[in-house]
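User: Please fill in residues for this 273-position structure.
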């Protein structure tokens, strides 16, 4: 237990962090790109400030609107834009920052983290082979860990999804296998999600993941005012996106009031034993 607590406390300053998502508008190179990076930055910084004022403990910046996602590696234009946006967020807020470049683009994630001083990256297929709408996604742990060592970036923590949302795992793949492999490959924490954005995992899967991985377990989808009473007491932390938006719409800006309401509820919930 002490290992779990110290890992997250080192990054976020608390034992059970609430991490808010900064969903970026389409970036250069994506089908939805509108040609104005300053507007992307302005919206991202506004969301980051609203999350900070609302009381979250950390942020993840993600190229959420770059659909359909490339698998494994984006172009340099994506990494460059992500670094610019992340740097502006870091300048505006004092919260620990994480980076997620869809989909499983660990090279860009680590590069952006190094360039901007981000504390962690989120990796969708660290040890799992999964099927996505854009093809098969292969695990990246061996290459990522070697590249991390080569760049001297061991201080950048790896938060690894287990059988991540919006994908289908290989037949007969088990949570036990994924959790064990993630720990042995060097993940600092693991993430449990439901089947899609806004879909919550089962509380019993969160509990099992904690027992199997012996690492901090974050709930990475479907956390809201309705589901927090069930999920937060059994998790080591949560990642919240949709529930923090105006009207609960994932494409909307962050609502500071929604953040404050969630943090108020979370503050009164029991924590994991």
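Assistant: Residues filled in for all 273 positions:
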């Amino acid at each position: 237990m002490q290992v779990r607590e110290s890992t997250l406390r080192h990054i976020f300053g608390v034992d059970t962090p609430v991490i808010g998502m900064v969903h970026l508008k389409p970036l250069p190179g994506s089908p939805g790109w509108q040609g104005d990076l300053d507007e992307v930055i302005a919206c991202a910084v506004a969301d980051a400030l609203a999350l900070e004022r609302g009381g979250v403990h950390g942020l993840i910046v993600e190229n959420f609107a770059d659909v359909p996602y490339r698998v494994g590696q984006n172009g340099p234009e994506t990494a460059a834009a992500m670094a610019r946006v992340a740097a502006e967020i870091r300048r505006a807020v004092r919260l620990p920052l994480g980076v997620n470049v869809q989909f499983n683009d660990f090279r860009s994630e680590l590069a952006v983290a190094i360039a901007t001083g981000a504390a962690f990256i989120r990796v969708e297929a660290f040890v799992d082979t999964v099927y996505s709408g854009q093809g098969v996604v292969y695990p990246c742990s061996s290459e990522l860990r070697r590249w991390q060592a080569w760049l001297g970036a061991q201080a950048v923590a790896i938060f690894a999804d287990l059988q991540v949302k919006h994908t289908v795992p290989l037949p007969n793949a088990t949570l036990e296998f994924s959790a064990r492999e993630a720990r042995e490959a060097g993940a600092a924490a693991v993430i449990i999600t439901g089947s899609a954005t806004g879909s919550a995992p089962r509380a019993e899967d969160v509990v099992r993941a904690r027992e199997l991985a012996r690492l901090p377990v974050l709930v990475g989808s479907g956390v809201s005012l309705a589901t927090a009473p069930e999920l937060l007491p059994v998790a080591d932390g949560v990642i919240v996106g949709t529930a923090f938006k105006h009207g609960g719409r994932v494409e909307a800006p962050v609502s500071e009031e929604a953040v404050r309401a969630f943090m108020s509820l979370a503050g009164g919930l029991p924590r994991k034993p």
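For context: The chain has one domain: 2-267.
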